[in-house]
Amino acid sequence: MSPQAALLDFWFGPDLTTWQLARWFKPDPGFDAACRDGFGQMLAPAREGALAGWAATPEGALALCLLLDQFPRNLHRGTPAAFASDPEARRVARQAVLRDRHDLALPPTARCFLYLPFEHGEALADQDLSVALFEGLRDDPVHAAPGGSIDYAWRHRAVIRRFGRFPHRNAILGRPSTPEEEAYLAQPGAGF
After folding, report:
1. Sign, CA torsion 102/90/31/4
2. What residue range is the signal peptide (predicted)?
3. 84: which of 69, 76, 162, 174 is 20 to 30 A away, CA to CA?
């Protein structure tokens, strides 16, 4: 099995269509350890461009985006390194989605992980692109449901429109919070 296929099999299981919200987006030290043990050694080469060839196929681009965007959040949870690969993840995603249209060869759940690098960006242009891409999944009931990926794309964009950044990252990145950001963060459910 190729490294890309092994990574996709680990992340998605037997196919690319099963939405595993609790596994992917809830802190779980066991899952973080499995990410680290199985694929942690691939992150630095991916960030340095050594795995750029993966992006030639839809599945390879998906695996590379996962490695650059999702895995750092598991490997380096709560540290600045969790976001260090974001620019490279957006570069790969931009090529895969806008130039190569690899997303169209993937099922909706897999597409989400090509779109998430834009949702994680703190530039409004990235957020606008994220919302447009996720809105393309409107026909899929899993993603269109309240609290689904489309809803989250809009919520992320609203935070960037309001603050120009994600206030929940401030403490991790050593950025001082404004009084308005502190008031927002004090609300139940603030942040992502």
Report:
1. positive
2. none
3. 162
**Which structure tokens are listed for 178?**
């404004």
Residue-wise DSSP of 162-187: HHSS-GGGHHHHTPPPPHHHHHHHTS
Q: How far apart are the first and last CA of the chain?
A: 34
Q: Rounded to whole angstroms, how far apart are CA atoms 144 and 170?
A: 30
Span 11-68, pLDDT tens digits: 999 888 888 888 899 999 999 999 999 999 999 999 999 999 999 999 999 999 999 9
Separation CA 99–CA 109 (nearest Å): 20
Q: How many CB atoms lie within 10 A of CB 183?
A: 12
Residue 60 CA to residue 82 CA, distance in Å, equals 22
CATH fold of 3-186 reads 1.25.40
CA distance 135 to 68: 23
How many secondary structure helices (H) and strands (E) does the chain include? Answer: 13, 0
Task: Note whether 117 and 86 are within 8 A (CB).
Answer: yes
Angstrom distance (rounded) from CA 112 to CA 2: 22
Asked if 149 and 112 touch (Cβ cutoff 8 Å), the reply is: yes
Model confidence pLDDT, tens digit, residues 70-88: 999 999 999 999 999 999 9
CA distance 26 to 143: 17
